[in-house]
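Problem: given the chain below (390 residues), write out its structure.
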Amino acid sequence: MRLSLPAAVLAGCTAALLLQPAATAAPSPSSPAPQRHDFAGGGSTTTLPLPAGAGLAPRGTRPFELLGLGWDGPADAFAGAVARVRTRDAATGRWSDWHRLDADAGDGPDHASHGATAPLWTGHSDGVAVEIRPGPAGVPPGLRVDLVDPGPGAASAAVRTLPAEPPAELPAEPPVGSSVGPPGVLLTGQAPRPAIVTRAGWGADESLRGKDFDYTGPVRAVFIHHTDTATAYDCSDAPRVIRAIYQYHVKTNGWRDIGYNFLVDRCGTVYEGRAGGVEQPVHGAHTLGFNTDTSGVAAIGTYVDDQPPQPLLDGLAAISAWKLGLTGRATDGRTKLTSGSSASRYPLGTVVEFDAISGHRDGVATACPGDALYARLPDLRAAGARFQAR
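Solution.
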């Protein structure tokens, strides 16, 4: 099923001058030659260089489902620029409206070596046009548009879904000297683990990511995101969206793995994100400046105006309560974190107090996770407290 385009990308982008594309989608003789990269898991990325930031006239391409711009300069080299794209529906041949790409999403590691826009999910597409208006710093080197085909996913004999742990009765007294209870027993502050679709379950191509795992200190806060992709999708298509984001984060952004620790679809299904073990404090790349001692959980969709469905909210609350509860952190509590990057809302080294469940925008100047989902964070904290056994 084709996923519908989001009505808009992040709010607040500068308005761009209209570009009237040529009627044909065929490449012109001066169009840059595409570079195709195929991966073991069946996915591929087609790269179209954008020399001198001149944009790209409408042209036909190999099939893709997600796109974004990348460059070789520092992450902020595209600050102030305006980038817009339109795509051709592979089934109908119709061209979409123009969509702005956010040039500074605030996702990523605290010390990124190069930059990329937030990705845009397009659904099954076979044509693209790009308009660029450079920012004050001009055009960064190596500017390109990457077209991502998530493919069928890698086959794996590994466990595809970790089953949910049923709630258990609390013991009268925690075992002396123990921070975790006996099998099947939850201690104060813990919550039952929800069912989690593993990386094998969503078809992750493990040959793409870094081979070593990176861990942080105990998780003290969860940052809620939205993926800024299509909202009206079949939940059976969520693994394709995750594979596309994963491929984009690794191959376009240059990260070691997908940035989020977990993702949740509109039906409430929870997916494992960055590799390293769902119970472990895996160091993610989700909230610039505050990736240390935190976990990033992304709602699949765009929740600026669209209201998040209740199953999605339930899934977000369940995984947040479980993850925080592993170290006895209350979902309705607060914690202090130290900024790891001056590109966040707070200068490097600043100690900041956050809610245990916070929004991406609380740490970074971004609209994520969208106004509609951000307004429901108090509900997530309260629901998480009910999940936790206390």
